[in-house]
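Format is sequence with structure; example below:
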Amino acid sequence: MQCNRRVLGASQVLQVGRIVIYVLVPGAWAGGWVWDAIAVRLCRLGHAVHQMTLPGLEKGECAEKVHLNTHVNAVMDYLVSHELNDVVLVGHSYSGIVVGQVSARLQHRVAHCVFIEAFLPVAGKSMLEVSGLDVTHEKQLIDDNGGLWPAPTLEELKSQPGLSDEWVNLLLTRQKGHPGKTVTSRR
């Protein structure tokens, strides 16, 4: 996987006196809204921020035909259609796989990648296969949920270290089923 120069931590990317263009890609079950607090802080520092919501995660969208490549292409199309260059592409969890693939394909547009508790692309493997989760069980959940990977339950969210009650409540009310083919696709 190529992230142009090197993978940087968030604190290394912020540069005083330089406007940085951030493209924030949410993890599974979330939309661009998950980045609101971060976006406000980055904007206050004078940076340009783009918060994406991936296909199949908007209200009322059909997720049935959404695959991993759909998400990769959506981010690439966004960068091209908005004429964004020299961007810092940020991925969280699931979207690390998306960000990694976009970076490899559009090296001339991506200056740096930031992976926040993110999965990285592994050739020939789906996200579920590299996640450490029980793949058979997760695929059954997807099948049982009409092709959507169900969002975490209250109990699952509360078990996450460092997740405040405020975030638990936000996630419970805003997250939605994630297009299952994106986490089972090997490419």
Summary: The chain has nine helices and six strands. The first helix runs from residue 10 to 13. The radius of gyration is 16 Å. The CA atoms of residues 54 and 71 lie 6 Å apart.
